[in-house]
Amino acid sequence: METLVVIRVLRAELNRSFDSYGKMDPFAVVKWLASGLSGASREISRTRTDWNAHMNPQWDHTCRAQPYTYDMMLSGSDFLEFEVMEGNVIGRPTFCGSSTIEISKLLGEATPSACSGQASSPEAVAGPVVELVLRNRSEVTGTITVQAVLVQRPPGSIPGSSTALTRVDPGLFEEPVERMGVSGGSAPFFKLCLRQPSSLGEASSDYFIGKDLSHAEDEVTFYEEVLALKSLPGAGGLAPLLEFTFEYAGVLSTFEAGLRANAKRQSLELLVMRNLRAGSKHLRMLDIKIGQKTAQAGWQGKSRTAALRQSVIDGITNSSCEGFRLEGFDGQPPALRSMDPLLDLGVTGNQKMAKKALRVMLQRMTGSEMLLHFLDVHQEPLVSDQELQEKMTPMEVSEVVLHEVVCKMAQLAIACRRCPVPQKWIGSSVGLAFDAGRLPSRLEGESEVRKFTQVNIFDWGRSELNTFDKHMMLSDKEQHDRAEFWGYYVGGIDRLSWEAARTYRHRFGCTGSWSHLNFKICDFDSMTDNDFMGRLTVPIEETTETCADIMTQSGRLVGENAARGRATLTYSIRWRSYPQGSRFKGAWLIKVVSAQNLPRQDKMQFRTTSDPIIEIIAVSEDAAGLLCHRQLSSVKVKCLDPDWEETFELPVLAEPGALEAALESAAVDLGARCAGSIFPPEKMPDWQKEGLFPELSSTKAASKWSWSSAEASDVEKAFKTWESCLDAISASPSTARPQRVDAHQPLGKSFTKPEAHIRPGAREQQTGLHPKHEKPDSPEANAYTTWALFEGQAAKPAVQMSTLSPDGIFIFEEQEGEQNLCGCLQFPCMS
């Protein structure tokens, strides 16, 4: 048996306010001081922030258990430090006071020997509730009430959980570890370097990465449960879904590098996970938070005030529109980096404010905009015509990346539908990543690109891993709650997978020829919509460097009567063929050289300049409908005569059916079901529709020259069709065969199996009923629902009858007048 100490932080009482105005929002930090007060310290936990609690916060927080032996008690060299902080919306927390106490004194008479000697309660012995004095230097600022509990569990276990805590041998990694910078989230990450990667079968020394456990206490149980579940055959029906989680190795105890000479040596505990950057030259990654609702009051310590604030963020970001939002973007392309979110405010040099403004800008991006920047490689070094025979171009890499993302996102959407029970994954994320700095040789081919293309699900701080056994123990209200939030999650995954497929169709779906190209020049505005400056429409054909006049929305020349002269755009177009074996037949290279005499648009900011950006849209038409490929240039700040010198590619695929092949590799028959018509263009100028494709013109346009997104009703209809395709594929016997188990002699009454598939999260499953049953409350209805919930998929069409008995549900198939038992689901009891 292993002895652990669990620290409880109950409450605090402060003597004065540490906030400049309003009520305080206190939280507490607990640190373990090993080998005396001057030894190494490590943060073991922090409480939630008690919003508006002011000077009387109530936490009732239980810290993560720590090993505690009899020898440690005798030495008396380990201490606990409790710090009370005041949380600030802007800026660092304010220190209110701290208190330090020896652990053995906090335990009182609760000792390891006492814990093991109590026959009536061998698992836990609670120490006294202790009130400690808080001090800020010489000032007494209040008190904090804490308690210590000794717990005995099997070695490595976590109190309150049956899951073992996996420990990683510190000798496997070099010490100390270095802190890393990331774009999303608040938990620090650390570089881990394997001493002998070849001995573990890993290709690189940076295969793993460490996440600070003090900021991820809620995640460790989730990862340990995933690790335990993966060791079971079929992982309890969750195997297809858990394949998308990060590889997890366990918890590592180490210390951080880069501290001052007189600073305490900080001991760290890190979650050891797969490092997506391993082997990558320049990783580009999207951190996409999934779900229309990303917080719930009272769920895993989330306060009502914090949940309300989060719901406001959900409402003003893309979460409320498409069911997901962009939280972080590593490896941003130069064009996106040029879009300063504080440009309109004229604020420069404030890195903290710029970071927050950038996060808001990312959170408000639509799915199509996220993927546009994710796949933007037009400013990567251009592969010369001589090098083209030897290595792939950045555009070829982005095509293979998106092809792989479409396949994996479709697999993830189907895996969610086949999950046997609804999950409550609040605030979890999907990560899309690839190596933007790698141009493999044509001998390595696309397999090398696919190897470094990642689609993963992560961030489990507010999530619960639900299993069939757990779900059966929940009340009806709790089951409905899981189904509601699982519906939010699955809806976000569906929309993201649809956006990926739609982006692929319009960027890489052309196998014939692109017809026309539209240059739309705007003044970039960080706070409002971009201001239109002018446009130019040209046919896509071989064109030497040309200087052309820019037109207004009404068809007049921009700057026709201006003193500086007419506004012009200089560009060129040429065709480049790709070598045999490439997925591309070739590509049109559109070079935007410069613009001259652009109008002044920033008069409202009391400036006589503009911040021009060019939106390039190429159009084509195939048998399935219209193709619309959109790209963006970088922003040229405060410039009326910008020089871009940027080259864009319009690829033409060598063979048709690439999108269908990606969907077909995700699931049988998915590609055949999804026609191009369910992926309408993201954005198309109405004047271009009328001029080039009159049959596609919208009669609802307010103006001949107005720009509009695809009709909302058409988009929603197309998306619903996509969801229907996923539903049908998930229930298809050819792609989801029911498991067969050992049969038992059937007892009881037979009933006809419903034809419709019961999908996790659907209304039928929430109520435990099925509309085809004449008696909804009959045990047969509930029995079949339980079976469908367990399997997460439909039975074979040949299966005609099911029989309910006290021992389980028995499945038969009828062939030539005979009923053959093909499987059963056993359960302990049914009332």
Summarize this structure briefly.
This is C2 domain-containing protein. With 831 residues, the chain is α+β, with helices and mostly antiparallel strands.
Describe this structure in words.
Residues 752-762 have a biased composition (Basic and acidic residues). The chain is of the alpha+beta class and 831 residues long. It has 5 domains: 1-159, Immunoglobulin-like, CATH 2.60.40.150; 161-279, 2-Layer Sandwich (Phosphorylase Kinase, domain 1), CATH 3.30.200; 292-503, 2-Layer Sandwich (D-amino Acid Aminotransferase, Chain A, domain 1), CATH 3.30.470; 516-657 and 666-709, no CATH class; 750-826, no CATH class. It has 20 helices and 35 strands. Strands 1, 4, 5, 8, 9 and 10 form a 6-stranded antiparallel β-sheet that branches. A 5-stranded antiparallel β-sheet has the order 11-12-13-15-14, with helices on one face. A 4-stranded antiparallel β-sheet has the order 3-2-6-7.
